[in-house]
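Section 5.1 Outputs to date
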Amino acid sequence: MEGGAHPADLHLPGRRRRRPLALGAHRAPRPALRHPLPPLARPHLDADADEILDVTRALFDRYHEKFTEPYPFDSYDQAFVPEFNAGAMENPGLVTFRDEFVFRSAVTDTERQTRAMVIAHEMAHMWFGDLVTLTWWDDIWLNESFAEYMGYQTCAEATRFTDTWTDFGVARKAWGYDADQRPSTHPVAPENVQDTAAALLNFDGISYAKGASALRQLVTWLGEKDFLAGINLHFERHRFANARLADFIDSLAAATDRDVHAWADAWLRTTGVDTLTPRVTPGEGGTRSLTVERTGSRPHRIAVGLYDHDLTDEGRLTLRTRLDLDVPGTEPHPIGKPPALLLLNDGDLSYAKVRFDPESFRSVLAHLSGLPDPLTRAVVWNALRDAVRDGELAPPPTWRPPAPTCRARPTSPWSRACSPSPAPISPTATSPPSSGPPPSPPSPPCAAT
């Protein structure tokens, strides 16, 4: 490093190819500082070294349970570099991180979870990116989407950070939704990337967040067993070589009877966000049936959560059941007695905007904090946010545009500047998203989580 700065380097012994992994369950050495560090940096790295290595071992073990192709390099080093200009970089066998990941003060558990996810993300690149490398920049999304998906999924499976998909739904997915609704949107897999300058523009919410969401939906649609079988075949066919999207899809298609090529055309070559709207119709004996209407062109495999009021706690909603539905579907699906809340895409397994029926909307406003699962609450919050963004969720009826008032500008007493004065905003709302007519009585206030 120039200027006398030295990276903080944590080293784990790797393994020669085709030999069993010696990490995780085995005795690993304490982290060693392989380069001198400024004295002020050493105690911070020492304090975090055990956690970083524990996470690293657990992720190594989990990836070797998923992938039949062993870790492809002789060792695995993690260097924390001062003033590094990216979050991290997946150099083969040596991942460089920005040194902000060596915490110098008390931090939240969410920040520790983010660091673990980044470790998982970069480790996934050892296979998808370094073992098998894209042929050209038009497939950069696959590099990043795969690592993004695997980072969140494997971190949830192998570490104590089990709520990573909630963090994804809250912090990442809106990034993809917003980018996909701008004039500058592009397909997840663009077909024409002329040069590196054009490729740089695709390091965005679509290549990361939407791409990872598409892969998560693909896993749901295919089943994880077939998905991993296709991934492992892809590694076997193209190890230490280059591959394109067509090669990846061919490998997945060889592992399943489903039409992966049609799925890829619908999901990866198109732009925009589908909208899913529930239509609940009465049946015999007070029962209801559900039909899901779709605005868009993509197939979706979603979970539908049916929630009832808790008999012992009026403010709490309890899960009755989750239904697995394919959209579009032709026949109404019976759901039994009317639920207090019907939530499309419960579990956040697809990439789509969802709407509420009128009764569910009333329940959301009154009992959002009563949903026990944070990921379910994240899906509801995103649905409400999308409805506001789309102009389908009306503002409170008592809200009025603020009237301009004038105040003296201290530096110029003879001039006056106009500024809006605060206007009271009622916590009530009377109009749900456009999935049905507005409820007749005023809706209760929205409960904060």
